[in-house]
Design a protein that fits this description.
Helix content: 40-55%
Number of helices: 11
Distance between the termini: 45 Å
Largest sheet: 6 strands, parallel
CATH class of the largest domain: Alpha Beta
Number of domains: 2
Order of helices and strands: EHEHEHEHEHEHHHHHH
Strand content: 5-15%
Shape: elongated
CATH topology of the largest domain: Rossmann fold
Number of strands: 6
CATH superfamily of the largest domain: Response regulator
CATH architecture of the largest domain: 3-Layer(aba) Sandwich
């Protein structure tokens, strides 16, 4: 999908007027709207059939909602990116969407031109986060709202907050690519954090770091 001239988008929203407005906006912005769905179940069927580059997904829908559909969409169309477009700015929904593999989380209050710009960024491998959402995510990290639980103080004190995040995700058996997606950073940045983490812990491999974490938790 990266860098193609006309990314193919599936629009998922239970309000017909919203779907029509989004489809028109995206077509004017140079995207190709290949389908529209009114709920999660319809979205799964269309994603499997059409294999879009991007799924623009509402969260609040009848039946199978967006959060429940999100991980299944990534299975139905493995090469697509899923971008949430919602009125909900709740931290619970934000973190759930990120954990499920969303490439972006946008609020419907965003100006139309910003939505188009965010989606162009996603097509080029960038994350898409509304400003308010980005601030909330940073607040979560600053206050210890870490994915996957905590680590013993002896290790946490030696590492940066982001290095702790990476260590915990490694402990959850995530790959470098999976960690990059989860944290909205590049694979190169993940490897840099791992290298720094290993140096600070005085170990030479990811396996050694996880063994040290296991010992510290006993």
């Amino acid at each position: 999908m990266r860098g193609k001239m006309s990314e193919r988008i599936l629009v998922v929203d239970d309000h017909p007027l919203t779907r029509d407005a989004l489809a028109s906006l995206l077509e004017q912005g140079g995207f190709v709207v290949v389908g529209e769905a009114a709920d999660g179940a319809e979205a799964l069927a269309l994603a499997h059939e059409l294999q879009p580059d991007i799924v623009l997904l509402d969260l609040s829908m009848p039946g199978l909602d967006g959060l429940a559909a999100l991980p299944r969409l990534r299975t139905a169309a493995p090469h697509c990116e899923v971008v949430v477009l919602t009125a909900s700015g709740s931290e619970e929904n934000l973190l759930a969407a990120i954990r499920a593999g969303a490439a972006g989380y946008l609020l419907k209050s965003e100006p139309p031109e910003r939505i188009v710009a965010f989606l162009r960024g996603v097509a080029n491998g960038e994350a898409a986060l509304s400003g308010e959402i980005a601030r909330r995510l940073l607040d979560q990290l600053r206050t210890g709202g870490r994915i996957g639980g905590g680590v013993p103080n002896g290790i946490a004190d030696a590492l940066s907050a982001r290095e702790v995040e990476v260590l915990l995700l490694l402990d959850d058996h995530l790959s470098t690519d999976d960690i990059a997606r989860r944290l909205f950073i590049s694979e190169h940045t993940v490897r840099s954090h791992v290298k720094s983490m290993l140096r600070k812990l005085g170990v030479s491999s990811r396996r050694d770091a996880l063994e040290r974490l296991a010992v510290a938790r006993r």
